[in-house]
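Moderator note: this is an archived Q&A kept for reference. The question asked for a predicted structure of one protein chain; the sequence and the answer are reproduced below.
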Amino acid sequence: MMFISSGELVTSLKASDKIVDTSIMDLEKLFNDIKKQLDHVVMDCYVTLQTRVKKELTNIGPFLADMIMSNLNNDKNLNLGSVTTLKRNVVDLRAQLARVSAKTAALQSAITALNTKMAGLQQKQKDLLNADSCKNTPLGACQQVLAMLETVFPVPSIDLTSQMASMDQLVILVTGIDPQATIGAATNSGPIIKVADDADTTFSDLQGKISSYMTTMRTMLDNIIGQLEDARSTAHSFTRYPKDYGPKMSYVAIGKACFFGLIVGLTIFGVVIGYSKFDKRILPTHRIGNVLWGWRLLMISVYLIFILAWFWMLLVVILMVIASQLDEALCPILMGESNNFTLMRDTISLVNQLVTPVNVHLNDKSTLDVSGVVSMCMANVPLYTAFSMSSIFNISGIQQQLTDVNLISKMADLDINFQAIHILPAGTEARINTAVLASAFDFGSTITALNVFAGPTQGFAAFAQLDRNAAATMASPGSQSMNDVAASWNGVDKTDMPALLALRDGVVSSIKTLDTQLKNLSQSTAAALATAKNAQLFFQSPAGAGSNSDASTLVKKAATQYSSRIVNYAQQYVKFVKNSVLHDIGTCRPAYDSYHAISSLLCIGIIQPINGLWFSIGLILILFIPMIFLNTYLGRYYSRARVLDLKGLEAEIMAADPIVGGATNAEYSPEPITPSMGLVTKVRRSFSRNNNKTIPLPSGRSGRSSNMDGPVTPRAGLVDRIRRSISMSPSPRSGRRDPSGTNLSMAV
């Protein structure tokens, strides 16, 4: 039998209460930590996957295509930018050809009109000079005009018909559009532009084909995220248990506190009300109201104390019986001693017997048996197992999914038929070279012819002056006609020639620009053809020839690197989730520590001491002795509160009874009464003298009840004797005397 002192018991109880509270707080903190960890696992990593992995999975096609284009552009022997340059030059050339054609047509029209006008003026001059009017004039003026006509140089005629026909053929070869075709006619891309268009289409098809390999990976990622969402909802449901458990324990504590508080409150209110309203000068029969309510509250408190005392006495007996059984049956199991049953099974049985099993609804898939979780926590198993998360969140299954997808191997085995890609179709190169050679026109003779009449305006002005001189020597109407010819030559000089020269300058500039573009076209076409040949060789070379020498090796290498990075992301994520669930979140350690702390406290600190005699005696001494003292004190206080003050009563008797007060009348003092006598002795001797003696009431006395009249007999009680003795004594304020002449001055 173990001995434990009351101080150790109190300390053990406090420690037990503290450990239990701490354990509950630790459990709730554990569940909150689980919730936070899984929230972090699901939300933070989910965002990472959404913004990083899933984005890359979606953009795998453009990524690989851009990588291929970048490698091709960085190749010294393969510059795909030349294809774009060629395409741009062809479009610009087509527009420039149209502009040259329009300007050349306008210039040709202006030259034709000017030649016609000049021929007419020359013929008119000849007709005037051959007329009779000129024959009759001095030969000087007319001969000068005739001599000048021989020196006038003709304006050249520019014919670009053959050049325009060749240009139209070049436009058709390059762009596939016939400049002479009617509006709305069907137009098809020429060979050169089609090469660039085919390159874009080829790479677009390649992007789509590579992207199709990512479907399985995206599906697996969605499955992982869905399982994490289930785990997150599971973690949220775990917080229900400690929230439901805490208030139940609080209700018991609140009930006990209210019971003890009721007793203490009744006692305090009874004492306060009794003392605050108690007045000893008021007779007991006249004490009503608050004084009586104070007494009643005190009595209720006394009764509750007695009830509580018997309750604790009965509880001690029950605890002793239970402790004896627990000490023999439960403690060996709790302390881990060998037995015929496992600790887990006995604990589950105990929990099911003492506590109603609580099944927390997790989701549509399963429920959580709280008693089972507690028992697993007692065995210090991982939370992943304790919470039965394997049916909801299968970490091994996720890892197996990564293995089954085998994305790296699929990317390594990526097979794209690059042999079907024909960047430079057969015969296209010859046609392009023919078109380029046909575009090499010689515009030198045309430009030289246009520059012949760079400054003919002075000659036209001289013609006009000679005509005016000739008109002065001619008779009318010949002179008038010659003046008209002179005005026409002035019009050619001031109007026709500036407009013709402006058209001539525009045509020359356009021809020079066209000549430059044709030279650039030749260069860009040569570069594009070289690029097309190298690109065709790049896509049709056998695999494995080099890191950048063939498309198959390059694409497989890039796809493998990309898939390795994606799989590495997923593996890191799954590893993080696994470590978080199995290790980082915890292994039920707070519950495990709480269980062993409570089991040690129950067996060593509570169950075994309760099974001893000294604990029972100590519990009785702690609980019963204060209650007995409190009960006795309250009873005595109540007794004093229901009688007169004894010292005040003694003074009143000494003043009212002349015999008791020291009178010498022999009739009233057969036995001497001294002040040293006790109060009870004085009262008895006083009443023994007045046995069978009637003390009449004074004639003027009124307001007394009938029971106060009559003789004071020995059978009357002590209180009745005192009351009647006092009631028969005249009031000192009345100043009345008895028939014998004695002044009775007893104060009430």
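Archived answer notes: The longest strand covers residues 359-361.
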